[in-house]
Amino acid sequence: MPNLRVLLSDEPGKRVLLLGNEAIARGILEAGIGVVTTYPGTPASEIGDSVSAIAEEAGLYMEYSTNEMVAVEVAAGAVNCGVRALTAMKHVGLNVAADAVMTLAYIGVRGGYVIVTADDPQCYSSQNEQDNRFYALLSNLPCLEPSTPQEAKDMTVSAVELSEELGLPVLLRTTTRVNHTRGPVVYGNLTKPKLKGEFVREPNRLVMVPANARPMHVKLLEKAEKAEEISEKSPYNTVVYKGNGELGIICSGSAYNYAAEATSLLGLDVGILKLGMTHPLPERMIGEFLKTYKKIVVVEELEPYLEMNVKAIAKDYAPTAEIYGKMRRSYFPRKGELSTRAVVTGLAEITGKKPPIDFGEIDSKYAEAVKDLPSRPPILCPGCPHRASFYVIRKVTGGKAVYPTDIGCYALGFAPPLSIGDILICMGSSVSTAQGINKATGVDTVAVIGDSTFFHAAIPGLINAVYNNHKVTLAVLDNLTTAMTGHQPHPGTGTTGMHTTATRVLIEKVAEGCGVKYVRVVNPFNIDEASRVLKEAVQYPGPSVVVFRAPCTLMLMSEKRRKGIKTVPCRVTDRCTNCMACIKLLGCPAITIKDGKVSIDETLCTACGLCASICPYKAIECGGS
Amino acid sequence: MDEFNIVLAGVGGQGILLASEILGTAAVKEGLNVRVSEIHGMAQRGGAVVSNVRIGDKVLAPTVLEGKADVLLGFEPLETLRNLKFASEKTLVLMNDETVPPTELMRTMKKYPGLNEITEKIHRFTRKLIVVKAADLALKAGNILTRNVALIGALAATGNLPVKVESLEEALRELVPAKYLEVNLKAFKLGFEAVGENKSSRF
Ligand code: SF4
Ligand code: SF4
Q1: Which of A209, B9, B57, B129 is most deeply buried (CB count within 10 A of its CB)?
Q2: CATH code for the part of the protein at A566-621
């Protein structure tokens, strides 16, 4: 991946190719932000990771916080001492942080504060595709929505200015196709970060007891009114095309990109109102736009957030306006991500124009070509320690227990042949749902959770199990990193986002501290020992915790490569009877069938030895590494 | 140039992100407008991966429209098929012949389709198909992980890209850690020569 030092370059006007998330990191440097906090989550992860890579050199502080709420609270402390801050999280992270955010809106900020919420339409790497623009509505906080990496950077800087002008946190709402798109970005000036501020006692503003909260709510509403005036004049809210007065499109964020390309494909001469500040909306500007066109089309991804508001505005400004979108009659999808195709199709239906591409023909030709094409869902890496843990869990419980799972690579274990993963809601839900399932059925439950997720959200659930004496087993698959999101450190790793060493918080000690009486640590690749311990844990009459500890193989292998250590792959000997046990039980991508015989792909095998230890004929040889 | 669309398709771990970034960086070096869209996170774990590179003045959307790819760069045959919806008779398909059988095939004991069947399906969309042995080239260069760069070299040799070979090499120098630069440059050259010289690999 790129050398992130390019972000530090002090050459205003320089044009570089940046990922949307790297562009936000650059914006952080241009805005003079002193504190960056985050909890990693796709599609937001590279914001924190980019900052972590250059923080020391840039002279700012960054941390991977234990969860998004903690991240917001740490930043809330800093910004109320006059230091500028940014917190980055994925959309569902804002659910975790919402408790803090909703009331921080009352308190406000002294130093500029930006909260990046990265939404994931299409659930590329998420459990839902909620539309976080509604959090802006709910919290009364201003919201900016970039369409491109360039805007992502520019808006980061503007959001800090806006935040200081209003004394409010500002939401920067991105979507996967902005976070994970690379585009040219032209640099602005760097601002030296201010790291030290001063805490001034202002209990009436800062201590949200009811008597103080009531007047602060009034203040918030005043700020929101001021924000609306700013929105009317914001350079991010503009009519980019005037058109011929027939059709006017209102859009925001990535929807603008699709809308602009779709109209040019269809040869439509339309007006486009592009909204970059989507809360508060520029009411008068939208009102005028509504009056100018015969037909109005609202193009937006996910929920009809703009459409609802535009229709409400129309009631006052243009009650007879014809407005098309996705409410009542759906011209555009309300689920999944938008695409040029979806916008072309919707606009074609509204205008009666024929699309220049026969999508139907492509679809049927394509369907014919890919009939019977095997799917290729994401799977655990070859050598992944989770595969060994799942094998052990299945073997010990015979598939008869219920296996609540959690957010991380190990969620992939739900798929056959491992088939461990029966219910998954959100971060930390495994340990608590297990308790309800056990109460309601009496069936053994083995809840699965990762190390980072354990620290993020499992501890109250675990304490609940102890306090209410729920008979559950929590298997913590501790791979010593936050693997899924790109291998960030966490409290159990002993390093920080600033690359300093830290006190390791040990999961087993936490569990003991929570009052769990049966706590053991095992190596999942030591199948016999791990099985014996897990069996004991499941039979234990109260809550039990087994930590399966082995490093993430992806991380381990890149470390080995860096150090020049060779891996000698395992191989199948002629003792192999083609019984297929390894294939049927493990689903390791390195085990393949070649000319009808089991064979190990030596470019993929990491020599973890799992297949060798479960082969009933001892036909797989590992060693030498 | 209005737009030039490249769809890169393969399996997580094959180096598609770096390949896309090389193309995008080369375009920026030449002052062109570009969008590179990637998928990170869960989808990367050994699953099907698609990335789009769009170069040109009119480009705004990060993703390629069905039927509008100028190049489909297939890192793996089945994944090439999976992305044929982006191809038309104008599309050049440049495909690595290295197969990565999905684990589903193993479990159900089904066979990976033969190269003939795959090329026949591609031919329903376009006659412009070049098959490259990128894994062999990468191993010859000294590291299997350079198959992505070998493919970029092969693509450069077709003369189909709106960016210069020198810009691609420059991007490579910028993006690849110094330690691995030499083997990558070698893979690029081998890829370039494979297509430049051996026209028989055209189907
Ligand atoms: S990244 Fe690590 S934890 Fe995730 S599947 Fe791969 S080896 Fe397992
Ligand atoms: S040793 Fe066996 S299970 Fe482990 S990576 Fe190699 S083939 Fe897969």
Answers
A1: B9
A2: 3.30.70.20
> CA-CA distance, A237 to A273, in Å (whole number)?
7
Which residues, listed in sequence order, are joined to residue A448 by a DSSP beta bridge? A475
The pair of three-digit structure tokens given for residue A31, joined into one six-digit string: 């805005």
Q: Architecture of B4-201 per CATH? A: 3-Layer(aba) Sandwich (3.40)
In this structure, which amino acid lies at residue A157?
V
| B60 φ, ψ (degrees, to nearest 5) | -130, -50
Top CATH class, A385-558: alpha beta
The answer to whether domain A4-233 and domain A237-356 are alike in fold is yes
List the Cα angle A260/B71/B174 in 5-degree steps. 90
Domain boundaries of chain A, sorted by first residue:
4-233, 237-356, 385-558, 566-621
* A417 and A586 Cβ atoms separated by less than 8 Å: yes
Place of tokens 């891996």: A567
In terms of Cβ atoms closer than 10 Å to its own Cβ (0-12, 13-18, 19+), residue A260 is buried
| Domain A4-233 listed as CATH 3.40.50.970 | yes
The pLDDT tens digits for B116-156 are 999 999 999 999 999 999 999 999 999 999 999 999 999 99
Contact A369 B28 (CB under 8 A): no
Between chain A and chain B, the number of residue pairs with CB atoms below 8 A apart is 180
Angle at A88 between CA A273 and CA A111, to 5 degrees: 85
Which among B2, B5, B42 is the top mutation candidate for probing chain A, defined by the most A β-carbons within 10 Å of its own β-carbon? Answer: B42
Angle at B34 between CA B28 and CA B39, to 5 degrees: 115
Q: Using a CB-CB distance cutoff of 8 angstroms, which residues of chain B are in contact with residue A264? A: 58
Q: Output the residue whose Cα is nearest ligand 1's atom 3.
A: A552
Query: What predicted TM-score, i.e. pTM, was given to this entire model?
Result: 0.97
A362: contact with B, CB 8 A cutoff: yes
Pairwise CB contact (< 8 Å): B46 & A378: yes
Q: Quote the tokens at residue B113.
A: 């389709």
Widest Cα–Cα separation across chain A: 81
Composition of chain B by helix, strand, coil, percent to 5: 50, 15, 35
Instruction: Tell me if residue A584 falls in helix, strand or coil.
Output: helix
A404, A422 contact by CB (below 8 A): yes
Q: How far apart are CA A27 and CA A20, in angstroms?
A: 10
Is residue A258 within 8 A of residue A299, CB to CB? The reply is yes
Give the model's pLDDT for residue B106. Answer: 82
Atom of ligand 2 nearest to the CA of A586: 3
Q: What is the pLDDT of residues B170-197, one digit of tens each?
A: 999 999 999 999 999 999 999 999 998 6
Specify the 3-state DSSP secondary structure of A337.
coil
Among A320, A146, A311, A315, residue whose Cα is nearest residue A234:
A146
Residue B203 has pLDDT above 50, yes or no: no
What confidence score (pLDDT) does residue B42 get? 64
Distance of CA A50 to the CA centre of its chain: 15
Name the DSSP class of A454: I
d(CA A157, CA A154): 5
Nearest-angstrom CA–CA distance, A280 and A554:
44
Distance CA A30, CA A45 (A): 20
> Which sequence spans correspond to the domains of chain B?
4-201
DSSP codes, A493-535 = TSB-TTS-B-PPPPHHHHHHHTT-SEEEEE-TTSHHHHHHHHH
Q: Cα–Cα distance between A338 and B60 in angstroms, integer?
A: 14
In this structure, whether the domain defined by A237-356 belongs to CATH 3.40.50.920 is answered with yes
The neighbour count for residue A622, using CB atoms within 10 Å, is 18
Residue with tokens 């530090």: A8
What pLDDT score was predicted for residue B198?
A: 53
Which helix (H) or strand (E) segment is A467 a member of? helix A459-467
Task: Provide mean pLDDT across the span B34-56.
Answer: 87
Extract the residue ranges of chain A whose pLDDT is less than 70.
1-2, 624-625
